[in-house]
Amino acid sequence: MACANLPLLRSLREALFSSFASKFSLSSFFRKMKGRFPFSKDTLFRYYDHFLDAMLIFEVRKFTPSPYQRLRNPPKVYVADNALTIRMGTRDRGRLLENLIYLELRRRRYEVHYFSGREECDFVALREGEMELYQVSFDLGENLPREMEGLLEAAAELGLKRGTILTLEEERTVEEKGVEITVVPAWKWLLTPLTDG
Question: What does pTM read for this prediction?
Fold first, then answer.
C-alpha cells in the first residue's frame, strides 16, 4: 500500500530517528508540524504505528503501577539500529550508548521501563520476578552525582538496594544511602552472559 503523505512520513522518520533515547510526544509533533503541510492526527498516529509494527522503533513507558499514568506520560523512543540515527547526523555518543544498552536488555528479554520522579533513571528492567536499575552515562566525570541521584531515587522508591551505571570505560563500586552502585564498562556488561535463576 502506497504512502499517501510522504512529507509527513519523512518528517516523522526524521523526528523519531533524531529523538531516540529521549521522550517523544506525538501531540507535540502534531502541534509543531500541522502548519507546514496538511495531515490529520489519525494519519500521524497510523504512520507512527507503522514504525512500531515494523520494529524500526520501540517505546519504553514510565514505570508506574497505573496503566493510565503509563499511557499519559510520553514514552522514550529507541531505534532498532544505531546506524539509523547516525544516518540522520546524530553524533551524541551518550544516547547511542543508551540505545545500545536498551537493545541488549530487550534481547535478554527484559520488560523495560524508565523511572521518572524528581530525577530520572534510564531503565527499570524486569525479568522473572526480579527488578534491576540501570543508568547509562558515556563519560561519568562530573555527571556522577546527577547519575547517582536518579538511581538512588529509583532505588528508594522501588525498595531496591542495588543499581548499575554503565559507562564507556570506568569501573568501581560506590555505596551511597544504603545502595550499592556498580559502575561497569558497557563492553564488559555486554559480554557478560545472562545467568538463569
Answer: 0.92
